[in-house]
Amino acid sequence: MTHFRKTFGLKAITFTAVLSMTAGLACAGDTNVSASQILDALKPKPITRGLSAGPQADPTAQAKEAAFLNTVRNRPTRSLSLGERDQIAELAATKPKIDLEIQFDYNSAEIARTSVASVQALGKALSDSSLKGSTFVVAGHTDAIGSEEYNQGLSERRADTIKKYLVQNYGLDGNDLVTVGYGKTRLKDAANGADPINRRVQVVNMDTKTASK
Which of 27, 50, 125, 184 could form a disulfide with 39 if both were Cys (CB 3.0 to 4.6 A apart)? Predict the structure, then answer.
């Protein structure tokens, strides 16, 4: 495994800042992003009524989505199958999401001291009453350096670290934080697999209330 050890030391992990199907709040690379900025990016986009409004949400599709998310709540990250990981990614594609710059210790899932403030801002945002009842996906990604097995495990451990910090320090319900690891299978810049932009943990507001729990 030594051959595949990461060489990135205290390098950046990003969370892509894009609101569903619209231009979002660009926070990538900004280590001073505030809780209010994170909150604004993760809030569901209001449905505009009138002739220009897009298609309304399908209650049947929403019910199926909620049922699926209930099957992956509070599951060990490593227990998710490839099919389940793909389904989470498909559902998350059109949801509000944000990128923060998080650093981890060398070849580790430990949050670097320089990034604690960013994770604290995330915790404050997710604790806001306007997001109460939403389910959030915390998805870990790596760059293309190293084996698939190693990167998969590293991405899962980093997602788990963020969840553990939020639960322990902000009292968030662990059932509302679905963790998933994608290793190097979903590169943000596939043409430059070693680019730091690929090393990220993405947070997505699935906008599914938890009343059914």
Answer: 125
Q: What is the pLDDT of residues 88-134, one digit of tens each?
A: 999 998 899 987 767 676 567 888 787 888 899 999 999 999 998 89
pLDDT the model gives residue 31: 52
Write out the DSSP string of 117-175.
Answer: HHHHHHHHHHTSGGGTT--EEEEEE--SSS-HHHHHHHHHHHHHHHHHHHHHHH---GG
Domain map of the chain by residue range? 8-43+58-205
Q: Are 55 and 192 spatial neighbours (Cβ–Cβ below 8 Å)?
A: no
For residue 18, the cross-strand partners are 97
CA–CA dist 20, 41 (Å, integer): 10
Q: What is the pLDDT of residue 210?
A: 41
What one-character DSSP code corresponds to residue 112?
P
Amino acid letter, 89: A
Q: Could you tell me the sign of the dihedral formed by the alpha carbons of 106, 111, 117, 121, in that order?
A: positive
Report the pLDDT averaged over residues 2-15.
40
Which residues touch 136 (CB under 8 Å, ≥6 apart)?
A: 42, 126, 176, 177, 178, 203, 204, 205, 206
Bridge-partner residues for 181, per DSSP? 140
Instruction: Note whether 47 and 134 are within 8 A (CB).
Output: no
Which tokens is 106 given?
């060398």
Q: Name the pTM for this structure.
A: 0.76
- The span from the CA of 179 to the CA of 208, in Å, is 16
